[in-house]
Write a structure and sequence with these properties.
This protein is mostly helical and 177 residues long. The chain has a single domain (26-166), classed as NusB-like (N-utilizing Substance Protein B Homolog, Chain A), CATH 1.10.940.10. The chain is built from 6 helices and no strands. Helix 3 (74-98) crosses helix 4, helix 4 (110-125) packs antiparallel against helix 5 and helix 4 packs parallel to helix 6. The longest helix has 25 residues, at 74-98.
Length: 177
């Protein structure tokens, strides 16, 4: 007798929650890894070069236990990390401005903070990636770590910032309130 299948987890928006074992693109894997690395750097105070070295030689290894990031685009991963560190003094006030009244980036969960910083850094540094793609990618990255309101926070913050830093990509479309 077979057991009934467990229903798929859903996010608060009703969409299926991203799973760590879902197949993802090399760039999506790089974004997930960048968020993990930023989190590690934030909490442990690890140097960027040490973190990049660890991910390149241990976490991205073919036999690494964390299969989600094994196929990550290594260059893209390092580019995101370097962009966040290079622009952090610019990123944090931009993000702070978009958070709900009374909230500051330093009060936000460390993983959510890493997702937001990586997303904004990509919006600023990677004009080869359309803003809407960046926003959607980081909403999905947030779903790897959260199943509640955080993906919506990522959507709102990145969308507002994207309208400011890449206005031509949104011409003819009103900004979300």
């Amino acid at each position: 007798m077979s057991t009934p299948e467990k229903p798929a987890e859903k996010t608060s928006s009703g969409k299926p929650a991203a799973k760590k074992d879902d197949p993802i693109s090399a760039r999506t894997a790089a974004r997930v890894a960048a968020v993990q690395a930023l989190y590690q750097m934030d909490l442990a105070g690890t140097d960027i070069d040490d973190v990049i070295e660890e991910f390149l030689h241990v976490r991205f290894a073919v036999d690494a236990p964390e299969e989600t990031i094994a196929g990550a685009d290594r260059t893209f991963f390092a580019d995101i990390l370097r962009a966040v560190l290079r622009r952090q003094r610019e990123l944090d006030p931009m993000i702070d401005e978009q958070l709900a009244t009374g909230w500051r980036l330093v009060r936000v969960d460390a993983i959510l903070r890493a997702v937001l910083r990586a997303g904004v850094a990509e919006l600023l540094d990677r004009n080869d990636v359309p803003a809407r793609v960046v926003i959607n990618e980081y909403i999905n990255v947030a779903r790897f770590f959260f199943s509640e309101d955080e993906p919506r926070v990522v959507n709102g913050v990145l969308d507002k910032i994207a309208h400011v830093v890449r206005p031509k990509e949104f011409e003819g479309r009103p900004a979300k309130a």
